[in-house]
Design brief:
The chain is α/β, with parallel strands linked by helices and 133 residues long. Helix content is 18%, strand content 31%. A 4-stranded mixed sheet has the order 1-4-3-2, with helices on one face.
Length: 133
C-alpha cells in the first residue's frame, strides 16, 4: 500500500488495526496480522510535480506522492470462525474508529457470496475484510 509516511502508517496499522511489524526501514514496512501480510511503501516522490514533459515521459517510479490514499486491497479471513470471525473483527475495527462510512451499520452480505466490511487507513487506502458465506 502506498503511504505518505511508512513510520506513521506502521504505527497506525499496529495500534489501530492490530498488525505486527516484521520489517521496517523507513521506506518499506512489512506487517502481519494472523496469516495476512501487508507491505507499505513510501509514496514520497515529488520529482514529477515540476516536470513540463509529463505527456511525453509519464511518471512511473511507483512511489509518486499522489499514490498515497489511492490503493485498495481485499483480505480474506479463513478459519473456523467464518461469519462470526468477520463480525468480531468488525466490532474490533469499529472500536478503533477506522471503519469506512459505508460500513457504519455492520458487515454486509453481498450478492456474490461474501460477508464484508471496509476500513480506511491513515492515508485513506481502503482495506476490505471478508469471508465467503
Amino acid at each position: 500500500m502506498p503511504v505518505r509516511s511508512v513510520e506513521a502508517s506502521t504505527e497506525f496499522y499496529v495500534e489501530r488495526l492490530g498488525f505486527e511489524v516484521l520489517h521496517t526501514d523507513g521506506h518499506l514496512g512489512v506487517l502481519q496480522r494472523d496469516d495476512a501480510q501487508l507491505h507499505l511503501w513510501q509514496a514520497g516522490d515529488t520529482s514529477w510535480s515540476g516536470r513540463a514533459d509529463l505527456a511525453a515521459r509519464p511518471v512511473v517510479s511507483g512511489a509518486e506522492s499522489f499514490l498515497a490514499g489511492t490503493a485498495s486491497c481485499r483480505i480474506q479471513l479463513d478459519g473456523v470462525e467464518g461469519v462470526e470471525g468477520v463480525d468480531a473483527l468488525y466490532d474490533e475495527m469499529a472500536a478503533a474508529d477506522v471503519l469506512h462510512g459505508v460500513s457504519g451499520r455492520g458487515p454486509l452480505d453481498t450478492d456474490y457470496g461474501t460477508r464484508e466490511f471496509h476500513v480506511l487507513d491513515l492515508d485513506g487506502n481502503l482495506l476490505t475484510f471478508f469471508v465467503w458465506r
